[in-house]
Design goal:
27% of the residues lie in helices and 20% in strands. By secondary structure, the chain is an alpha+beta fold. Helix 2 packs parallel to helix 5.
């Protein structure tokens, strides 16, 4: 995700100012999650803002080739997986209540429904609370905060897999959370990345960055046709707990 890089502001008191007027969100604000949500809710014209390690990040204008189109392709990949995997849901730009200092709004994510054994919850006011099993972000390069503060927040809160498409670098990083550490998962000998959490979620990263949509779709379909995906679906349908262990 593209963000403005203005210097961070000093911590604020989080108190309403000037006769009950709710201050607007501004890039670099230091806020609690509750105050962040209060200000965000008061700005219906604002479509994206994130709280990462207690600091507000707001997007700069989004370019088509560097973000918007890659974003759409990531969402389509996950949505196609959801279609053939009951009990799994994909999301696009939803706010995630990770902890009291973090409420990111990732480009895409994939969860197992709580009643099917997933680790995240859906709150009464329809937010995801806790860590999705998989989060995906579009980043310009390795310098993006998606690979800095946000990566650490996802890791610490138990996101199990983190996919970052570095568009300008023409690379896809797939991190797997092992005992509290994100480890970069290399492609298999055939060049394919295979999820350790969602059986059958396969990706050809080279085809993705080259824009070969038919190949990306075909590789995913091979994963969806695999015996391990069929077994995963059977366990989801049965509603077994700890299905991803």
């Amino acid at each position: 995700m593209a963000v403005s890089t203005q210097p961070a502001k000093p911590a604020e008191s989080n108190m309403t100012q000037d006769h009950g007027v709710i201050p607007p969100l501004e890039n670099g604000d230091r806020l609690t999650r509750a105050e962040f949500e209060r200000r965000y809710d008061a700005m219906p014209e604002l479509k994206k803002a994130e709280l990462v390690e207690g600091e507000v990040y707001m997007p700069s204008p989004v370019r088509h080739g560097r973000h918007s189109h890659p974003h759409t392709r990531l969402v389509a990949w996950l949505a196609n997986y959801e279609t053939d995997t009951p009990g799994v849901e994909a999301g696009d730009n939803g706010s995630i209540r990770l902890d009291l200092d973090n409420e990111p709004q990732p480009d895409a994510y994939l969860i197992i429904r709580p009643e099917r054994g997933g680790q995240a919850r859906i709150s009464e006011d329809d937010y995801i609370e806790g860590a999705p099993e998989l989060v995906a972000e579009v980043a310009s390069s390795s310098a993006s905060y998606d690979l800095g503060k946000k990566l650490n927040a996802y890791r610490r809160n138990g996101v199990r897999e983190y996919v970052v498409w570095r568009v300008l670098d023409r690379q896809v990083d797939w991190f797997v959370n092992r005992e509290g550490r994100f480890e970069l998962m290399p492609p298999a000998a055939d060049g394919i990345l295979r999820s350790t959490v969602f059986p059958g979620l396969w990706l050809d990263p080279a085809a993705l960055v080259r824009g070969e949509k038919a190949t990306v779709k075909a590789i995913l379909q091979h994963g969806l046709n695999s015996p391990e995906h069929a077994d995963f679906v059977a366990r989801l349908v049965e509603g077994k707990r700890d299905i991803t262990e």
